[in-house]
Amino acid sequence: MLRLLRKNLKQRPLPFTHVNLFSTSTPKPISKPSNSSDPKSFTVSYLRKSCGFSLESAVSAAQKLQIEPKHSPDSVLSLFKTHGLNQTQIRNIISKRPMLLLADLDGKIRPNLELLNSLGLSGTSLAQVILKEPTVLESDAKSVLECFRSHGFSEEEILTLTMKLPTLYTYDAEKKIKPKLEFLKSVGFSELDIARVLSSEPYILTRSLENQIIPSIEILRRLLGSEEDVVKVVKRCYRILEKPLDKLLEPNIDALSTNGVPQSLISKLLVIHPAVLLLSPYQVSEGIAFVKSLGFNPNSLKFLLAVRSVAGMSKALWEQKLETFRSCGMSKDDIDSAFKVQPMCMVVSVKKIQKMMNFYLSKVHLNPLAIRKNPKLLFYSLEKRVIPRCSVLQLLLSHDLIREDSNYFVHVIRMNEEAFKEKIISKYKDVVPDVIKAHKGMIEFEGFS
Questions:
Q1: Burial class, 228, CB count within 10 angstroms (exposed 0-12 / middle 13-18 / buried 19+)
Q2: Which residues are within 8 A (CB) of 233 and not within 5 positions of it... i.e. 6 or more apart?
Q3: What is the pLDDT of residues 331-363, one digit of tens each?
Q4: Would you state the pLDDT for residue 21?
Q5: Nearest CA to 394 among 422, 350, 432, 348?
Q6: Angle of helix 73-82 relative to helix 87-96, nearest 10 degrees?
Q7: Would you state the pLDDT for residue 19?
């Protein structure tokens, strides 16, 4: 087949004019091929000369595409150029969807390109959207856009949604999108909630309303007993409307209940950390067994937080974090004790554990026992909270207004922002005005002696 096409292309001049993607001249219409000409040869030649296809790619595309005089492929290519698409982008788009060359230029492609432009898409961003879903240029995109706008989506949210999942523009807005928006509204989501959830996780709209979204909401209603809590859960974990809750959520809840966790605590976990209950039942069961082996009480919230920390982490990563703590002078008992005080301390990344521990040990001169008792110290931002507060303490020390006391330093670092301003900044700003600069990070912290 390839050999025959090569022979035809070499021996016969083509009776139509190709547009060159680099040319700025006005494209000429394709002239009618002679009766003796092979339409596939014309199509292959056009794709090669006008779109930059390889012979193999052109032959493959020609199996689905046949360019005839009534078509305006040059006009389609020129329209892409006027919207800022370069030769490579146009070739990639046509490669993915050759039939665009034959699509309705004025009825579909032009208005849909203008619609995407109106959202702020052009050049590279426009090409990215079209490459994700080329048929968006043949769709009734206007109806979908108007549906989102009429349901309170901002232009920024629509743009975000479009970049993530342009396939939505190929949907029937009245049948596939509007009913889902209306259902979520009936559950108790505000238009603002719906727009935020779906612009962040538009894949929810690809799920069946009857077979996925409604059953998921019904399961959450049954477990929580309150539509207000259902809304909270979905807003904390958008993916909960996409997952098979009967195979994940319900078995995990049963496992917790079987191991002595009261329903009230399970409901609380579902509201504050729903993602953990979407892990595989094997992961959750393994986490429960490990946490029980450390002596956690199933009647406490810490038990659930510990399961949340362990279940979503690989054994390799867990060991890496243990080794990081050990390298900073903490024993196994120290680490276990810190984990029991604040189970979420093991969620902190290895990099941050290393950075925070190094700072506390070398600059603040805390010992590992202080971290064992106060693992929450690992949660704070070093640059935005810890260092500025230590700079303030450094100034107060230099003026003999406080004494060097690691327990006091920990207390000050742990204060909430309002208390810190009231008890430290406001108290000393008249005596040492520079505490305001230090609090803003404008004075370097050199470390306590």
A1: exposed
A2: 220, 224, 240, 270, 271, 274
A3: 999 999 999 999 999 999 999 999 999 999 999
A4: 53
A5: 432
A6: 130
A7: 52
Residue 179 contacts residue 222 (beta carbons within 8 Å): no
Structure tokens at 144: 């979908």
Provide the Cα torsion 263, 264, 269, 270; round to 10°. 70
Average pLDDT, the chain: 91
Q: Residue 72: what pLDDT?
A: 82
Q: Is the pTM of this model over 0.85?
A: no
Q: Which residues of the chain have pLDDT under 70?
A: 1-39, 69
Q: Given its phi and psi angles, is residue 208 left (phi above 0), alpha (psi -120 to 50 degrees) or beta?
A: beta
Nearest to 388 by CA among 420, 365, 419: 420
Specify the pLDDT at position 312: 86
The pLDDT, as a whole number, for residue 18 is: 53
* Among candidate residues 159, 162, 153, the one with its CA nearest the CA of residue 133: 162
Say what the pLDDT of residue 32 is. Answer: 44
Distances (CA, A) of 91 to 180, 267, 298, 426: 36, 53, 60, 65
Long-range contacts of 274-277 (CB under 8 A, 24+ apart): 274/233, 274/236, 274/237, 274/240, 275/236, 275/237, 275/239, 275/312, 276/252, 276/307, 276/308, 276/311, 276/312, 277/248, 277/249, 277/252, 277/253
User: What's the one-letter identity of residue 402?
Assistant: I
Q: How far is CA 222 from the centre of its chain?
A: 29
